[in-house]
Structures are given as C-alpha cells and as structure tokens.
Design a protein that fits this description.
Layout (H helix, E strand, L loop, with lengths): L2 E2 L2 H21 L5 E7 L3 H17 L2 E7 L5 H13 L5 E4 L9 H7 L11 H9 L8 H12 L8 E5 L6 H10 L3 E5 L6 H5 L4 E4 L17 E4 L3 E3 L4 E3 L4 H4 L5 E2 L6 H20 L1
Parallel strand pairs: 1-11, 2-3, 2-4, 5-6, 5-7, 7-8, 8-11
Antiparallel strand pairs: 9-10
Helix pairs in contact: 1-10, 2-10, 6-7, 6-10
Length: about 280
C-alpha cells in the first residue's frame, strides 16, 4: 500500500508560515490583496475560486472579485483588467482562462503586470521559470507539485523524473523546476512512443496529461512517487478523478497523491503565497 500524500497537510503547513508574514505586513500597514478576475460562470472556475478564497481567508489575505458576464465586449474587458492592473492596493491577479471565444486570450495574458501575475501565465513569468530567476511567479500547479515533494521529504537531486504532459500550465514548467533541483527529466507527450517504458524507469512520476485514468499500473514501479495533477470529470464515479487510475496504482507504488484531496488545495495555497510575496515586494 502506498503512502498517501494528502494536500491538506502541505497546505496547512504553508498557511501557518504565511500567517506570520501576513501579520508582519498588516502591522506595517500593508494588506495583501488578491483580485479574482472571472468572465462567466464556468463550474471549474467557480470551484477553484471557492478554494482560493478559502485559503486566502485562512492566511489573512483580502480577496476582491471582478466578475464580468460571459458576453462582455473586448473594450470593457480590457478597461476592467487595466484598472486592477494599475490599482496599487491589489498585489496579485488571478485571471481565469480560457476566456470566452470572442475575447483575445493571448492579449489578456500579456496585459497582466508580471509583478501581479500570481498564477504565472505571462511570458515573463514563464521565462523566470526556465531561467530559474525571480521574474514573476511560476505557475501555481507546477509549484504545488514541488511543494508536495519537498514537504514529504522526497529526494529530487540525482533522481529520474518523468512528466506526462507538456502544457505551459504544468508539464513544461514542472519539468524545468525538477531539472533546477538536479533531477534527470523526461517530458512525455502525445507523440512520445511507448510512454510506459519510459515512466516505469522514473523515481518520480508527475501525471499531467488531462486524460482520465490514463496512467495505469504498467506506467509505474514499486519504488515510485506519483503526483497526480489531473482534474477530470468521472461519469462512473459522478465526481472528480485524476489522470491516474488510483485503485490500480495505489497498492503498487511507494507514494501517491489522491484526487480530490491532493494537489488542488496546495495549488490554492501557493497562489496565496504568491500574493503575499508580491505584497512584500511592493512595500
């Protein structure tokens, strides 16, 4: 049976550290503030918003919401985003994407001030990940995976790591973050031939393909740590499940994160930590 790496334990430990930092900022007259910028009512956006709001409140971070209708025009959207971008009282902006099809996603992404881009979506933030510098912030889910490995004492330096998925949200940035900590990394994707033969050799496997239960026991080995960042709707279960077929893999590997209950709460807490860091830089 695997050790279950529960996200709440990691998130609570991070929140405890944040509380001390937020108290010091408030004592100095600075109130760390996150702006949640949402267009429409997508269920996945609403779920993440609830989690992020809860984690912000636990850490003492203020949350402002800018909610626009799904049919908002480009001019209004741009004006509202510019307003929060230039508001000195707002330290971080969470912009939910993808935006509705009639809005320019790329333009919105690049409009964000990297200093407030707490979800790590601008080119400058991503460049900071690849160069291992403090430019902007890394994508929250990628950092959450790393925080889980650190919290549970999983050795990274010199280890083999496999990442399934190459998105800019998680796959590529987490591969770079593992490499910065001296792991040997293989980034698998849809064109990779015989993925299981590669992932079976890994000490650490990060599943980020966005494909329900696509990672089965044949992808793993008994000494492996598996981080499942997938969030997929499971019709059979009637709820959320991960990329990993948990019931098949969990009895076989050394450690695994569950879905739900794994990476999600850590991702929200990392977002809040970025707001606090941005507020400290703004002092």
């Amino acid at each position: 049976m695997a050790k279950i790496f529960k996200g709440k334990e990691v998130a609570d430990a991070l929140t405890e550290k944040l509380n001390t930092q937020v108290e010091a900022l408030r004592a100095a007259g600075v109130i760390p503030t996150l702006c949640i910028f949402r267009v429409g009512e997508r269920p996945d956006d609403l779920a993440y918003e609830r989690g992020a709001t809860k984690r912000a409140q636990l850490a003492g971070v203020e949350v402002r919401n800018v909610i626009l209708p799904s049919d908002v025009d480009q001019e209004t959207f741009d004006r509202k985003l510019k307003e929060v971008n230039e508001d000195p009282a707002i330290h971080g902006i969470l912009l939910f994407r993808p935006l509705p099809g009639h809005l320019d996603n790329e333009r919105a992404r690049q409009m964000l001030n990297p200093a407030k881009d707490v979800d790590g979506c601008t080119d400058l933030s991503l460049a900071g990940v690849f160069t291992n510098t403090k430019t902007g912030f890394p994508p929250c889910t990628a950092q959450a995976a790393m925080e889980i490995l650190h919290h549970f004492g999983v050795g990274i330096s010199g280890k083999k790591a496999a990442v399934i998925g190459r998105s800019l949200v998680i796959g590529r940035p987490v591969a770079m973050m593992l490499m910065h900590e001296n792991a040997t990394v293989v980034n698998c994707h849809t064109r990779t031939i015989d993925v299981p033969s590669i992932t079976r050799e890994a000490d650490i496997l990060i599943a980020a393909s966005g494909q329900l239960h696509s990672v089965t026991r044949e992808y793993t080995n008994p000494d492996q740590v598996v981080i499942d960042v997938g969030i997929n709707w499971d019709e059979e279960k009637g709820g959320i499940s991960g990329d990993v077929a948990f019931d098949d893999v969990e009895p076989y590997v050394r450690a695994i994160t569950p879905v739900p209950g794994g990476v999600g709460s850590v991702t929200s807490t990392v977002l809040v930590s970025h707001v606090v860091e941005a507020a400290k830089k703004a002092v």
